[in-house]
Write a structure and sequence with these properties.
The protein is of the alpha+beta class. The chain is built from 11 helices and 13 strands. The chain binds coenzyme A (COA). The site of coenzyme A (COA) has 20 residues, from helix 3 and helix 8.
């Protein structure tokens, strides 16, 4: 079978970041204003007052300390509470394509490749800025690549699902070198006025260069030993935004058209599924747990990752075994495990094995077992 490697990674990090304290200050100012404006209804009991948020809660419940965003001023303005991202003309590069291209250029340089070497681009992320043309095709044109390009969305698991598509395309001969790009502008689908989730997400873009082992020219690539995907329907994480929204005026702009979740339920249901998947996948490949050097896990919640690492590794572990980037980046949806892989893989020795694993809405889980060449 054709051997396939990940030969480069790229990361675009926005220049603006918001600390928990800054986010909470804006949220609490919004809450005070809301409660003041609705004081009479609250006093009459017809409306519930909003409760304030706290940095301590956010840190303790999630491990998140800050998040990068495409636009900070809009998010922390208590009279706005969402990013300001101006629309662009059709003949300008779109913002998602722009950050995708930045991360792709870094990944290509790392892999020693030029756009002429790329014959497929998959933009895999949880939100697309428009229905069509595909963002991936815009990226293809901006980079100057040939071949074909398409968008796909499996929420937080988009990158690992895209990675399997890339590996399959190379193995089947339909492509030789594939970019899997995850431009996640999650701040645009987050309700910053909801204290249950206002702290969760951050913006970023990542790229993976995936190619046949025989075309790889750089040291330190990672061979893909196997990919495994699983999905199981759940309403616990959901976003009803879509093209049918305008067909029922009563729902336009309603809360369900942005991200929402039952966080505790997700935590309880998904952790065992993820641990089981990593164990079953490694076993199917004939890899002993003791040979798993690193877990590059989806970055949604620190306790969740600690629980999964404990169940999988069955021993004492530290941040070398399961690197954490969510403290600085928050949950960047499909890009989270790829950021961890991007930042924490160079110290692995040739032959050492790790697992990239995503999980999230769907439910969806993707695991990719890799070995340093
Ligand atoms: N500040 C202060 N208190 C808050 C708060 C905030 N920002 N948000 C919620 N609370 C309160 C709740 O109202 C609740 O109060 P109660 O006990 O009086 O009812 C209490 O804190 C606990 O809330 P809960 O939602 O149960 O917290 P949690 O410990 O489950 O943590 C998450 C919330 C979202 C951090 C956590 O559930 C999580 O990360 N889950 C996994 C999510 C995930 O992986 N999703 C994949 C998505 S892509």
């Amino acid at each position: 079978m054709q051997r396939v490697v990940i030969s480069g990674t790229g990361l675009f990090t926005p220049s603006e970041s918001i600390s928990n304290d800054e986010l909470v200050a804006a949220f609490n100012a919004y809450v005070q204003q809301y409660n003041l404006t609705h004081a009479q209804a609250i006093a009459e009991g017809s409306l519930k007052p909003l409760a304030e948020s706290s940095s301590e809660f956010i840190n303790k419940a999630s491990g998140i300390k800050s998040r990068y965003v495409m636009n900070k001023s809009g998010v922390i303005d208590p009279s706005r509470m969402f990013p300001h991202i101006p629309e662009r003309a059709d003949d300008e590069l779109g913002i998602q394509a722009e950050i995708a291209v930045i991360s792709a250029r870094e990944a290509l340089a790392q892999a020693g490749k030029t756009p002429a070497d790329v014959d497929a681009i998959i933009v895999a992320c949880s939100n697309m800025q428009r229905a069509y043309p595909a963002v991936a095709i815009e990226v293809q044109q901006a980079l100057g690549c040939g071949g074909f390009a398409y968008d796909m969305n499996v929420a937080c698991s988009s990158a690992t699902f895209g990675l399997q598509n890339a590996v399959d395309a190379i193995r089947s001969g339909s492509a030789r070198c594939v970019l899997v790009i995850s431009p996640e502008i999650t701040s645009a689908h987050l309700e910053f006025r909801d204290r249950d989730c206002h702290f969760i997400f951050g913006d970023v873009a990542t790229t993976l260069v995936v190619e046949a082992a025989e075309t790889c020219t750089v040291d330190g690539a990672f061979e893909v030993l196997g990919t495994r995907l699983v999905t199981q329907f759940s309403n616990a994480i959901r976003n009803n935004f879509g093209f049918l929204n305008r067909c029922d005026e009563s729902g336009v702009g309603a809360r369900d058209k942005l991200f929402r979740q039952e966080g505790r339920k997700v935590f309880k249901e998904v952790c065992p599924m993820v641990a089981e998947q990593i164990l079953a996948h490694s076993a199917a490949l004939g890899i002993a747990v003791s040979d798993l050097k690193r877990l590059w896990l989806h970055q949604a919640n620190l306790s969740m990752n600690e629980l999964i690492a404990k169940r999988v590794l069955g021993r004492e572990f530290d941040r070398d075994d399961a690197p954490v980037i969510l403290d600085e980046y928050a949950n960047t949806s499909s890009a989270g495990s790829i950021i961890a892989f991007h930042k924490h893989r160079r110290d692995l020795a040739a032959g050492e094995i790790g697992v990239i694993c995503s999980f999230g809405a769907g439910y969806s889980i993707g695991s990719v077992v890799v070995r340093r060449c």
